[in-house]
Structures are given as structure tokens and as C-alpha cells.
Amino acid sequence: MWTENGFSRRQWLRRSWQGIGSVALSSMLARAAGRKPHHAAKAKNVIFLFMSGGMSQVDTFDYKPDLAKFAGKRLPALPGLDGEIASFLSRPHAALPSPFEFKRHGQTGRWVSSLFRHLPQSIDDLAFVHGVKVDSNNHSPATMHVNTGSPFQGNPSVGAWVSYGLGSENENLPSYVVLHDPRGGPVNGSAVWQSGYLPATYQGTPFQSSGTPILNLDSPPGVSRELARRELDYIGLLNRRHAAERSHTSDLDARIAAYELAFRMQMEAPDSVDIGQETAATRTEYGLDEARTEPFGRQCLMARRLVEKGVRFVLLVHGWENGIYSWDHHQDLENLLPARAVEVDRPVTALLRDLKRRGMWEDTLVVWVSEMGRTPFSEGGGKRLGRNHNQYAMLTWMAGAGIRAGATLNETDDFGVKAAGSPVPVRDVHATVLHLLGLEHTALTYLHEGRYKRLTDTGGEVLKGILA
Fold it and tell me: How far apart are the first and last CA of the chain?
């Protein structure tokens, strides 16, 4: 179709200042008119903290004093293992006690590593799950498994399922926002927050942690809001005429909605992440006054502001892929792990306290995960030792809406290699998140290639032991 000025519709859209391909706004279309919950919800929003690289459980929250008895020696035979972990144990290795001191904290008396100086203040608010198992011992599939429920690419992320199931409480903001490490993204990049086979409207929207939250969201100089409104109305007219001539126009309908949301977001998105509106005391509490804590502190503070504005799911990624700025410590554990812990300790503690102070604790679920745990033995010789991957012992904690504060579910063996009894599949973590949001994980389905698929496609049980 051609306009009066001789431009085709496609040319018009390409030349328009509101061409938003680079803004990736197709992910912002989940509106407030989402599905109703399947049952009464405990949580309205989720802040999902992903520690990229594979956090060592035995150096953080899973105290294993028995490792000292075998320091520098082989561990005894451990049944129920296969794959790489079994191979690691069959080869020469040496038990590596944590180089960090552990102390009991809070009324629960939970053991916490000296890596965390601030988090023990809130330790009684957390519920821990030990011995979570993922299906792969490698970064890429394990990262996908924790974030999408499948080790294979092409599946919707947890946030996409939540967005699909519930929509947003604020029609001027996306229902699913991503704040990743300013140094770089996680392994697999945007696949971690993709919509997979769900419509693209449900994928995560990456926000920048400083400046304009979304690239190219601002109008060009000289373009007033009134002019932008007129142009948008005209584009909408062209789109509707185009759609009226075709029977299958869902993609075009989504494009029209994307333009409208982009226009609304120009007013609300910058304000929602403007941490300059926060008091100096709040910014200091989150660690914005210190170079090491400022980046993740900014992410945490923005996350609180976003859920306060009605964003349903916020994914915070800490760590850049699996290099030295991640939680993947094959060597130099004594230096690299403290550097990562100090970056998140103060900001996460501030987030938990701030949610309580603002009356958001009962509505917001906070989830801490990584893609795997680590081995309790060293993988190399010399003085600068590290730990290898361990798919059998990932640790997670949850806090806030619907969580029984101070609870502990499951435990690992005497050395922290695997669960002492039955492992907790990561799908159970996903089922629990959905349950707290009022979504029955077996009923949240999407028809794809002739089969109804779901986040917990291979099963799942709600972790009732950590629920209030």
C-alpha cells in the first residue's frame, strides 16, 4: 500500500522516528489484562537474582567441617553419582576445605561464610533449599535449565511464563524486565530471558542501569509529544487499513500495540528507574557510595522501584559469562570469590530491608539462584586452587511473599557433593515460584507443535517445606 506522499507503508515505518526495532519493544506488550491466577496468590511480583557462573555452596551457605578431615586427600567413595562428577572423583583430586571462616547467625543459628558481612542481618528472613540438581554439568545448558526449565535453547524463560500467565499491573511498563551486569551478560546472552515458543510479547525487556532505561526510547530533538502523538495516530491508521485487508494479522496487531506502549513508556519508564529520586540514605544503604557495590546496588534499587511500579518479574543477573567477573572459580578461589561476594552482599541486604520497610515484603518474592554448585575438592595443584562444576549441589534461597522465614529444606552429604537423600530438581523451584504467584504449574500451558507445553514440562512439586 502506498501513501499520498508516494512512500510504501514499509518505507514509511523505516523512516519514521518511532521505528523501534532497536528498542526491542515487542517484549513489552504483556498488558494488565493477563490471565487470572489459578488460586489465591501469595506474591504479586518476583525479583529473581541469578549469580552467573556457578556459586560455590561450600564457601557460602553450606558449611562442611568434615572437609577438614580429608584436606589434601581423596574423598571416600560416594554412591549415586554419574557423569562428570563421578569422573572427577575417580581421578586424582584433593578435598579442599573452605578457606573462609563460618559462623552461626540469627535465631536460626544458620552457618554463613565470612564472605558475607551484611546478609547475616537478614538471615532469619531467608528459606534455604540445599541439593538442587540441574541436568547438566556445563555452563550453557545449566544456565538455560535454571532460567527456562530446559537445558536446550528455544524454550520460554521463567519470567516469560509469568508474564504470559499474569500480565503486568502497569500498562505503561513491561511485565518482565531484565537488569544484567553492566560488564556483560550471562552465558547464552538474551536466550536466558527469551520467550521461546511463546509469543514475543512475553520476552524480557533489558533495561540499562543508568541513563535512558531503553536505547532509542527518547524522542529525537525537536520532536514534541504532540507531534509524536499525531505521527503515531497516522501510523496506526495505516496499520489498521493494512490489517483489514488480511485475515491473519496477529503480528501486525502486536506491532501496533508495541508502538502504543513505546509512546506510553516515554513518560513512565525514565521515572521508574530514576534513582535520583531516592534519599541519600537509601542510595548509601544499597552501596551506591562505593565502587565495588555501586553496579549491583543500582540494579537492586532499580528492581525495587520497578516492582513498586507494577512490573511483575525482574531478573537481575550478576556476573559476566563465566570469566573472572563471574562466580565460576576454577582457580584463585581465595581472591575471586570474595570479590564477587562483596559486590552483592550489601545491595541484596539493602533490598530485603527496603522491601520490608516499604510494606512490599508480603507481595514480593525474592529468589537467589545460580546455574550449579561447585565441587568440594580442588581440580588442580599449586597454591591458587579452585573448584569445578557440580550439577548436584546448587543452593537456592527464597524470601518474602509466602515464604516461611528461617526454613531449611533438604541437606547435602557430609562433603557437599550431592543431596544426602533425594535431590531437589530445579523444576521444583520453578513450580514453587509459580505457585506463590497463584499459578498452578501443571495448568499453565501453551499449545506448541501439537502438544501443550509448560515450564515444568518434565514434572515438578511445590516445595511446601519452605512455604508459610
Answer: 59
CA dist 27 and 203 (Å) reads 5
Select from 285, 278, 244 the least CA-distant residue to 121: 285
d(CA 105, CA 120): 6
Residue with cell 538474551: 190
Model pTM above 0.85: yes
- The CATH number that applies at residue 58 is 3.40.720
Task: Give the integer Cα–Cα distance in Å for 448 and 450.
Answer: 5
Q: Is residue 221 part of a domain?
A: yes
Domain that holds residue 177: 15-466
d(Cα 85, Cα 352) in Å, to the nearest integer?
35
Residue 354 domain-assigned (yes or no):
yes
According to the model, what pLDDT value does residue 364 have?
Answer: 98
Describe the chain by its helix, strand, coil percentages, rounded to 5: 35, 15, 45
Per-residue model confidence as pLDDT tens digits over 385-424: 899 999 999 999 999 999 999 999 999 999 999 999 999 9
Answer whether residue 10 is part of any domain: no
Whole-angstrom distance, CA of residue 96 vs CA of residue 347? 29
Strands (E), 71-156: 94-95, 102-105, 110-113, 127-133
> How far apart, in whole angstroms, are the C-alpha atoms of residue 265 and residue 267?
5
Q: Kindly state whether residue 340 falls inside one of the protein's structural domains.
A: yes
The SS3 assignment for 336 reads: helix
The answer to whether 41 and 437 are in contact (CB under 8 A) is: yes
Count of domains observed in the chain: 1
| pLDDT tens-digit map of 58-110 | 999 999 999 999 999 999 988 888 899 999 999 889 999 999 999 999 999 99
| pLDDT, tens digit (0-9, with 9 covering 90-100), for 315-364 | 999 999 999 999 999 999 999 999 999 999 999 999 999 999 999 999 99
